[in-house]
Amino acid sequence: MDWSFLDKLKYNADGLIPCITQDDETGEVLMLAYMNRDSLRETLEKKLCSYWSRSRQKYWVKGETSGHTQEVKAVFLDCDRDTLLIKIKQNGGACHTGYRSCFSWRVTEAGALAEQGVKVFDSEKVYGSK
């Protein structure tokens, strides 16, 4: 496989590129994370989303702890080549807090937060207390 296009992407100063993850069937946006060149290549090769954790400063495969994997269906680049959109089949929840999507709170017209997400697993049972 020719991976030369990976060198044509616009990574930030830390060598990272933002990645929006979207459910391939429903169009629901599930999460935003970052990838580096190696995690993107791994994602493309294995067809499972792999990311770079900015907080832990390490590579991780989505679902390696929880079993809630993301099977890659399609990968898109934006016009500036500085953002990825990956359409996936989500197995379980995408959010480490137990929700299907990381975008599970809506800002109301009154400026309050309204929970509207669907909790699909108990994060304390999967990851322990945080």
Write a structural description.
It contains two helices and eight strands. The chain has helices at 37-46, 123-127; strands at residues 17-23, 29-35, 50-53, 58-61, 70-77, 84-90, 105-107, 113-115. The strands form three sheets. Strands 2-1-6-5 form a four-stranded mixed β-sheet, covered by helices on one side. The chain has a two-stranded antiparallel sheet with strand order 3-4. A two-stranded antiparallel ribbon has the order 7-8. The mean pLDDT is 94.
In short:
12% of the residues lie in helices and 33% in strands.
Descriptive keywords:
mainly beta, globular, 130 residues, 8 strands, Ubiquitin-like (UB roll), 2 helices, two-stranded antiparallel sheet
* Text of the CATH class of the domain at 10-95: Alpha Beta
Describe the main β-sheet briefly: 4 strands, mixed
Give the helix level as a range of percent. 10-25%
Shape: globular
Order of helices and strands: EEHEEEEEEH
Query: How much beta, percentage-wise?
Result: 25-35%
Write the layout of secondary structure elements.
Elements: E1 17-23, E2 29-35, H1 37-46, E3 50-53, E4 58-61, E5 70-77, E6 84-90, E7 105-107, E8 113-115, H2 123-127
Parallel strand pairs: 1-6
Antiparallel strand pairs: 1-2, 3-4, 5-6, 7-8
